[in-house]
Design goal:
The protein is of the alpha/beta class.
């Protein structure tokens, strides 16, 4: 009944791993992950943890029949998620595997992230006794996973209008912006849409203070340097640069309404001219409507 992922050799074509718990949002995550796997031409792995969360009373002991029921129910959940992935219209030729594990969700996904192309989560879950609240693991997995982590919120529309919107990436000038930009250009190219690169260079919103004109010029130079070279590698991607004097969370949240996907680094540079992107990503995880990918520096 337990997972055997630790014994698997490292995949030559890493899969996208999506965690499901039976909630509606987790099934939306499965559909989104199927579309993403089809874009990348990689396998999809649908997983469910049936470990009983801690904190439900001391000395709680599960009988063999309890464990069997949990496992059977987990199989039902991954089977439904597989059906949803296939029904999304992109999963017919997709290689899909499933796994039901007794290992706690966070430790399982962190271990799996070492071999995954991407880990996908719904922004919230059921929270029932038999399944951990999936939303409660989002922060832990997005900040500690070895792979990028996608979080699917209430809106993951695949209609033609939504699919034509650009990919949005937050650029803060830190080294962690580079892997975020790498993934953002790749996603935009695969989706055949434009890329909006946004750099918010202030921690406050309001009237500029003395000396901010020179700071803005410096920020513009750094912004251009971060984007240098990507145009040659991705000539098919039209880039819209946005430089604003605003808080990163507010600026990215506002612009995300015009995007089909938001990509940010897991942490940034901090200081006067840039809010710590770790704080930014954490805040955005709970506020954006479009799918969001958090990328950590390798």
């Amino acid at each position: 009944m337990t997972s055997q992922h630790d014994s698997r050799p490292k995949e030559p074509n890493p899969p996208i791993v999506v965690a499901v718990d039976g909630s509606a949002i987790s099934y939306q995550a499965a559909a989104w992950a199927a579309a993403e796997a089809a874009l990348h031409g990689c396998p999809l792995e649908i997983v469910n943890s049936v470990a009983v969360p801690t904190g439900f009373g001391p000395g709680m002991v599960l009988t063999d029949s309890d464990v069997q029921w949990l496992y059977t129910d987990g199989q039902r959940v991954v089977a439904e998620a597989t059906r949803v992935a296939r029904a999304s219209g992109v999963g017919n030729g997709l290689e899909i595997t499933t796994d039901v594990t007794l290992e706690p969700t966070i430790s399982y996904l962190l271990a799996r992230s070492r071999e995954a192309r991407l880990v996908v989560l719904g922004s919230r879950g059921l929270g029932a006794l038999r399944r951990g609240l999936l939303g409660s693991v989002v922060a832990a997995v997005s900040h500690h996973a070895q792979s990028p982590v996608a979080v699917i919120h209430g809106s993951a529309a695949a209609d033609p209008v939504s699919a034509s919107k650009p990919v949005l990436v937050g650029v803060d000038g830190s080294p962690n912006s580079v892997p975020a930009l790498e993934l953002a250009f790749e996603e935009a190219s695969l989706r055949k849409v434009g890329l909006t690169a946004l750099h918010a260079w202030s921690d406050v919103t309001g009237i500029p203070l003395p000396g901010w004109d020179s700071i803005r010029e410096q920020e513009m130079e750094e912004f251009a340097q971060r984007l240098a070279g990507f145009g040659e590698r991705y000539p098919d991607v039209e880039v819209n640069r946005i430089l604003v004097m605003d808080r990163p969370v507010r600026a990215l949240l506002d612009e995300s309404e015009n995007a089909q996907l938001l990509i940010v680094g897991s942490h940034g540079r901090g200081g006067f001219t840039g809010m710590l992107l770790g704080s930014t990503s954490a805040a955005l995880l709970h506020s954006v409507d479009c799918p969001m990918i958090v990328v950590r520096q390798s």
